[in-house]
Design a protein that fits this description.
Layout lengths: L1 H18 L12 E6 L5 E2 L4 E22 L4 E24 L14 E11 L4 E10 L1
Parallel strand pairs: 2-6
Antiparallel strand pairs: 1-3, 3-4, 3-5, 5-6
Amino acid sequence: MNKIYYFPGIIFCCLITFTSCDKEEQDVNVPEITIANPQEGVTYNVGDSIPMDIEVSDRSIGEFRIHIYKNSDSSQRMNLYPMSSHNAKRYKVDFFWVSPPLKKAALAPALPEPHTMYVDVTDNMGNSTRKTVNFLIQ
């Protein structure tokens, strides 16, 4: 007879325990990207040390990539994956990239070549964002 009284009590305790758990708040915000350098529109010379000062933040950063392309032929000049799936809340990249020589004809004038840097960040919930910076190399 005592078993009948325990059964409803066990069911009640289980219901209270499983329904009272806090549901984790869903992350719908895209990661934040702050690019201090390189700055938009700046002209650098071939062989210059171009400062890369980039910071990303989110509740849980999953992947962080930096790409630089030469605009005229879409050739990739730099491809960097400083971080992948580390669950960090903040990550800072601070280094110098030395621009490689541009391939030009011997008699061609030294005109500045437009380049674009793409910074892509995705958090562990799949929210992603991109920032770009355009600069010139001559």
